[in-house]
Automatic annotation (TrEMBL):
InterPro entries the record matches: AIM24 (IPR002838), AIM24_sf (IPR036983), Trp_RNA-bd_attenuator-like_dom (IPR016031)
Identification of the protein by name: TIGR00266 family protein
NCBIfam families membership: TIGR00266 family protein (TIGR00266)
UniProt superkingdom: Bacteria
Residue ranges of the TM segments: none
Gene3D superfamilies reported for this sequence: Mitochondrial biogenesis AIM24 (3.60.160.10)
Species of the source: Rhodococcus tukisamuensis
Amino acid sequence: MKTEISCGPAFAFAEISVPAGGSVRVEAGAMATMRGDISITTSTRGGFLKGLRRSLGGSSFFVNDFSSDHGGVVGVAGALPGDLAETTIDEATALLVQSGCWLASDATVDVDSKWGGSKGFFSGAGLVLLRCSGNGEILLSSYGAIRSLMLSDGETMTLDSGHVVAFDENVQYRIRKAGGWKSMILGGEGIVTEFTGPGRVWMQTRSATDLVDWLRARMPSNSSGSSSSSN
């Protein structure tokens, strides 16, 4: 997958070159432009159950395969303002991707889901992750800028769970409170994810969860709207 990324890190846009006889798999709704000889096939890529599992991981039930007989270009963009990053996976290590962060990949990459375990139940993050396996390139999308970090063997790093984009499957992780209940309720620090290397971790500099909370706090409630109308 040959990709050219521009307009980052705030409003990144990627143009993916599709060679003659080739194809690329894209998240439903992520296509912004097409040039040249491009055709689209929409499917669940694995049947109903696989599409359902993928949707539980925050991706769409359907995916779009863009193919070309003579060559073309597909332009893609993330749903939120932010950056894009391309990385490679192989048979040795799969990649676990947070909800909404998988944007596109080679058709040779299998996009499924993985149960994050009961440790994700109360976190609002990590309950179900997308599992990308196989051989090929993957395009990751973030809210804000995206950073790639390499953890050495035994090295640990803690991220607010809303800032996690993706990590190698061999990286150990656990979800916990940032501190005590006082810090969680009064200090604004909630659930964090602790990673232990070796392996790669990608983070985003903004949290979509924080954005939703910020917007919710500034939106008029139904009760206030009712009071205004009654007056």
